[in-house]
Please model this.
Amino acid sequence: MTCAQPPIAEFRKAALSCAGALCLVLPGPALAQEAAPSNPQIDYAGFLARAAALEPVRRDKLLSWEEFAEKARQEGALLLDARSPWAFAQGHIRGAVNLPISDFTDAALAEVIGANPDRPIYIYCNNNFTDNRAPIVTKRVDMALNIQTFINLHGYGYTNVWELGAMVSTSQLGDDWVESAG
Model:
């Protein structure tokens, strides 16, 4: 499925409009504060706009464990784990490649994903597991790594992203879960 997206300028305009509306309901002292310095390398409104635009796209990209496992094993697919190297080393889904979200850059993503921006990418995070123990301790629901990973991959031009939508336990995965011996 391809999703036509309006130009980013329209997203920014909508996000700024929404942000302005939110300011109207903030208490008085918040309005009296001086504006923070602007960093041209950070576009908060652009991020908000991208996130809002991708919400319905993401909803259509959630898979059951069975679908996720089958598709992630297909030739050319990439199973991406964006958790920390420590968490990945402690346990991950068999076949996953680790690239922490904090290391996402054009170059790092191209090195891991390859030259094909249409390559199918399958993602998961701690909140896909019911275990709630290291290395997959449950995060706050609105901070689940899937959200940031999905948005960031799309932002870098990788739009064939699929997400594990189900919750599973590591014991349910059997041999599909790799756990460190130490």
About this structure: Residues 86 and 167 are 22 Å apart (CA to CA). The radius of gyration is 19 Å. The beta strands are 62-63, 78-81, 91-93, 97-98, 121-124, 161-164, 177-179.
